[in-house]
Every structure is written in C-alpha cells, then in structure tokens.
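Q: Hi! First time doing this. I have a protein sequence and I read that you can turn it into a structure. Is that right? Here it is:
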Amino acid sequence: MTNSAANTGRVLWAGLRALLVLTVICGVLYPLAVTGIAQVAFPAQANGSEIKDGSGKVVGSKLIGQTYEDLRWFQPRPSRGLGANTVNTRYGLILSGATNRSGDNAELIQWVKEAKAAVVRDNSVKGHVVKPSDVPADAVTSSGSGLDPHISPEYAGLQVHRVAERNHLAVARVEKLVADHTDDRLLGFIGEPRVNVLELNVALAALAGRQ
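A: Yes, that's right. Below is the predicted 3D structure, encoded as structure tokens:
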C-alpha cells in the first residue's frame, strides 16, 4: 500500500469514527438529556401544554386555538368562514400564517365587514343588542399565525349574553367566568390582557354541567 493510499484510509477511518461519535452524542445522548431535563423541570410545557377537562381527558393545547361550530361556546378569533383573513382556514397545525393583505385591500375590507355583521348578528339576543361599534378588532381579524388561542376580554365580554342564553345560565355567572379566566399583562406591562378560549370553554362546560 502506498503512502497516499494509507493516508486516505486513515482520513476515512478518522472521519467515520467522528461521525459515529457525533451521531451518538448529538443524535442520542443530547436529545435524551434535554428530554429528561424538560420532563423534570417543565413537564407541562414539554408535553404540549395540554388542557384537560373535568374528567381528566385531554381536550387540546393552551397554545393552539380551536374552532367551535356550536354558538353555545365562546368563539375564537376568525379562522374560517366569514372574515377568515388568514391562510389557516381551520386552526390546522400544518399551516400557519396570515394573508398579508394590506389594510386598504378591498377583499380584506369586505371580510372584516362580513365578520363584523356576523358577530353583531350572532351575539344580539333578546334584551341585548350588540352595536357594530362594540365589536373589537380581534373579533373580525385573525392573528398573524392564524393559531392564536386567545381573545381580548372585550371580545369575551361581548359574547357573554349569547353564551348565557344558550347555556341557560345567569349573565352574572358567565361574566364572572370570563373575569376569572382573564390573564393580566405579563409582568404587569408586557402585552395585553387576554382570555384563553379553550380554558374558558372547559370551565363553561363544567359550569353548565356538560362533563
């Protein structure tokens, strides 16, 4: 064997050993270590920030919004139908993003108008009429990701009378439910107050005796 061939063999063997060692470290040991630390230190987050109902059944993640066909439930930001100004039409995890249409885009403006009309229609019940000026922005626009699980306290409050009527509950009880599930700004000054729709609906189900 010539020196050149021997050198090539040594280089290839060294490269193979490095590949095997790095594969074990980076592909096996490191993921196992990170997973173990996450399960011990942050088990809820590591397992997807799951939300369970009163029976212990996992009903979703607190990080991902859901659709609700039945208007007895609190509704999330638009992600389908009227006002679906997002590329994600049903809160599906495969696709995330907005349409990126400008504020003066005619189609976007039409979506918002239709969504506002739907919000006014759906939430105007006997003895309580919702005015177009009462509808907050998050009721008629999707989030940038199309997956936001939160709505504003204003939008949750706008839905209280409809939810109370359809679930045969007192308005005051539903108002308290919203207040109890309103999260303040992070550290008192970051972001805006918000309501997680899934957590709110789980609590509503318990209150209405549907678990």
